[in-house]
Design brief:
The protein has 69 residues and is mainly alpha-helical. Helices cover 64% and strands 0% of the residues. It is built from two helices and no strands. The chain is flat, with a radius of gyration of 21 Å. The N and C termini lie far apart (50 Å).
């Protein structure tokens, strides 16, 4: 019974995701000059996530090297 509920939940979740992304674009066309124009700049949020990932990886590496020594 749990496998059936899990499968049904997965199907419903996949269907909901496809509906959420099926919306029209902005009224002025695609942002940042369109698909073949200049690329959109990476905003501060992505930069912070990359920095946090690097810091986390560095800490894990430091902890592992400290256990070996």
């Amino acid at each position: 019974m749990q496998k059936l509920i899990a499968a049904l939940f997965t199907i419903v979740l996949m269907a909901a995701v496809s509906v959420v992304f099926a919306q029209p674009g902005p009224p002025g066309g695609p942002p940042c000059g369109g698909p073949f124009g200049p690329p959109c700049p990476i905003d501060g949020g992505v930069s912070l996530l990359i920095a946090a990932g690097l810091a986390y990886g560095g800490k894990k590496t430091y902890d592992i090297s400290r256990k070996k020594g």
